Amino acid sequence: MKKAIPFLALALLVVACNNSKEKSNQSKEQMSDTENLLFSESTLAYGAPDFSKIKDEDFKPAMLEGIEQQKKAVEAIANSEEEPTFDNTVLALEKSGELLKRSSQIFYALAASNTNETLQAVEEEMAPKLAAQNDMIYLNENLFKRFKTLYDKNESLSLDAESLKLLENYYEDFEIAGANLSSEDKEKLKEYNEKIATLTTKFGKTLLDANNAGAVTFTNKEDLIGVDEDFLKSKESKDGKGWTIPLQNTTQQPLLQSMENRASREKLYMAAWNRADQGANDTREIIKELVEVRAQKAKLLGFKNYAEWSLQKTMAKTPENVNKFFSGLIPTATAKAQAESDEIQKMIKSKGQDFTLEPWDWNYYAEMVRKEKYDLDENQIKPYFELNNVLEKGVFYAANKLYGITYKERKDIPTYQEDVKVYELFEENGDQLGLFYTDYFARPSKSGGAWMDNFVTQSKLYNKKPVIYNVLNIPKPVGNEPALLTYDEVSTMFHEFGHALHGFFANQQYPSLSGTAVARDFVEFPSQFNENWALYPDVLKNYAIHYKTGEQIPQELIDKIKNSSTFNQGYSLTENLAGSNLDMQWHTISADKKIEDVNAFEKEALNRTKLDVLHAVPPRYRSTYFSHIFAGGYAAGYYSYSWTEMLHHDAYNWFETHGGLTRENGQRFRDMVLSRGNTLNLEKMYKDWRGSDPKIEPMLKARGLK
Ligand SMILES: [Zn+2]
């Protein structure tokens, strides 16, 4: 994924850069007082953060001062006596908040990948302050008046295309944020925003407690037959009297694949299912309040519902389009899931059992079906996926073939943790492209999952080249053992580098339009697209080399990996659609609707969209633990993952029919898509490159649904 922005996206767009005199004077003062390196630009190559000198205590004062500096800059623009011009208004806002942007980019990188108590406390303290900063800008009446004056006569300003887009982009953000409301309604809106911020934080905290409290302890080893011994060892209770299995955020739990004891499976599954609808960690009241305030906010802003308001700047644009997209997928997905369910039921029977398949049985028996059908064992392929080979001979190799880029490791750039590596990337002609940090190994101070973001954003305005990092959670090998990856981890590495390429090829004047600053339902497209090269024959043969023998991966194994890629896809798409649908339905309720019962609403919502026809295929997240939409930034946006999946398969289909992995194809994709940031209408950009609108068929084919 692209790292979730910890405060409103709108705020990030404007916490850009500031070079006012006021700022440079202050920063010098601060520097001599405290030697806080965040107050000045880094002198390292590419402006890379100097982690050998930045201290945890530096962030709070830098961010607080950054907030003050931006406030002053915004007030100066808003209250200026001069006639509004592009330079004194749009550009001035774009340049405001340099210190805040620089320090928060570094701060949130560490808060996610290498946190500690100091950073956690700062994070908690800053969240509401950054949300208020957003309102400070977008609900400022004088500031909006100046943007409106310019926007209304934009054609007479003779701006270049990107500057015009910058003006339009800000203007739309003002409108979406509520700048057209009366002063009275703006006050109401600020209250709603504050309430939403408080409720989402509360949901996140309650869910964290619910997840921890939901961990299941088994005291009898027999109940855990089938579970990996090393794993069990790491889960031994402190008193030595049992094993405590923590809950993952999804409905299905990884252990359900290997647990032989059916009663244990049911116990673990039910603990996950009911984690947050009882006792002290019940999230249902929070959900009720939250969807209600969101609906009221949308109404105040003149929309039928929250989704309609929130989808304005996306590719999908309206809830109707999202629902139309779903309705094309639901029958196909559930039909495939039904066929998979039949196969599993047969497998259950063949093992001498006569029970009906339940959700907690699915993964255990599906794994048997997979082994029987495809004869694929993860342990057979891992020796061919050694981490450095995958990165340098796979990920970098594919990028070289497509875009001509090359790499060199830089050992002179300080990192924030010893496992982090830094590469310098170059264009085909040897020109510098940017710095790339890899932080691949799991550790307790790192959040789960994988993500990409920038330490430094590309912009011609500041003559900046990108500094980008990828974070994964691969288990760190012991001692000098090599890190051998699962195919999933290989795929994730390609995925995150796809985001990185989107950032590296950015070629924008303005940082707020640069690279990955695009709509939520587009940003996962370049990354998912890049996953395709992992299995591309020329690439695979180059990196999949046995770490001991140096032997290339045998064709037989490649075939097995490919054949099994459509396995269980009916289940996987159905559980995703169920989650996406719940999200959409929670966010299309109108402001006058009262929700009485969260679980009843959920049941009805799944029934209405025929996503409940398979009892054994539950939603990927139930409402009560759906943190993407109630704590994270994906409210009315969870559909994005399936949407970009459609785009990436359709795009790869173009490559397949135009000669595949070639320099020419790569260059064309870079020129027309990857380098364009947020400067074009995304639908039109895609269509211009592809020659037609995206079609769903390649995605269905890739998932084995057609
Ligand atoms: Zn991603």
TrEMBL record:
InterPro entries: M3A_DCP (IPR034005), MetalloPept_cat_dom_sf (IPR024079), Neurolysin/TOP_dom2 (IPR024077), Neurolysin/TOP_N (IPR024080), Pept_M3A_M3B (IPR045090), Pept_M3A_M3B_dom (IPR001567). One of its GO terms (cellular component) is cytosol. One of its GO terms (molecular function) is peptidyl-dipeptidase activity. Its main location: cytoplasm. Residues 256-704 form the Peptidase M3A/M3B catalytic domain. Coiled coil: none annotated. It is found in: Cytoplasm. CDD domains: M3A_DCP. It is an enzyme of class 3 (hydrolase). Pfam families: Peptidase_M3 (PF01432). Its cofactor is Zn(2+). Binds 1 zinc ion. The keyword Cytoplasm applies. SUPFAM superfamilies: Metalloproteases ('zincins'), catalytic domain. The keyword Cytoplasm applies. One of its GO terms (biological process) is proteolysis. PANTHER family: DIPEPTIDYL CARBOXYPEPTIDASE. Removes dipeptides from the C-termini of N-blocked tripeptides, tetrapeptides and larger peptides. Belongs to the peptidase M3 family. This is Dipeptidyl carboxypeptidase. It comes from Aequorivita antarctica.
